[in-house]
Amino acid sequence: MTGSVTVVGLGPGKEAMVTPEVTNALARATDILGYTPYVERIAPRDGLTLHPSDNREELARATHALELAAEGRQAVIVSSGDPGVFAMASALFEALEGAPRHLGGQIAILPGITAMLAAAAAAGAPLGHDFCAINLSDNLKPFALVEHRLRMAARGDFAMGFYNPRSASRPHQFARVLDILREECESERLIIFARAVSTPQQTIRTVTLAEATPEMADMRTVVILGNSATRRVGDWVYTPRSAELPA
Description:
five-stranded mixed sheet; alpha/beta; five-stranded parallel sheet; 25% strand; single chain
């Protein structure tokens, strides 16, 4: 049997948000590779080998999957959300670029529902017009670049989705993010803190930028900042589909 590597998104947490295509790929897999909490979502079964690993072992994980495929195995790499959004799809191609002997092998990327999109749906439609996503972690880029992109996105009046806002190793950086946003945006701009989206622990909290504090976010939180037109309608938050050039 010809081997393959498939990279899948498990969605934000709720099993009903795993696509049928991904479910089928998991059922065919001989090997599951991924960050330990994601691998733990996969039920053991006969003929399946689980390969959990640390969060910062992406390239080693991707290389291992390519090697398994070369042996004729059906390797599936699991990510949360969508594998192409700050996740394992890019890591796989980076590993493939460094190991061209694996070029020509069977590779598939299966999309999933991102935490950002699940959070937006739970809040209403804050991403209803142009938006961008920014990973606030500086593990793979300098924080100065994060700051630059924040300012440029704010000046372009994009709604923004923020991944990895605040961790135990980076407790101070989200405070800096909020300071930058307050420098570039009006104080009444709406900002949404969506924690543990699609799980029983889900909380959705919307405040103004002036009211936001760093402690409202952690690594299980997706933060969405509206654009200048984003507003409330009842309990919902939405961004209109139309826009005009600012005066």
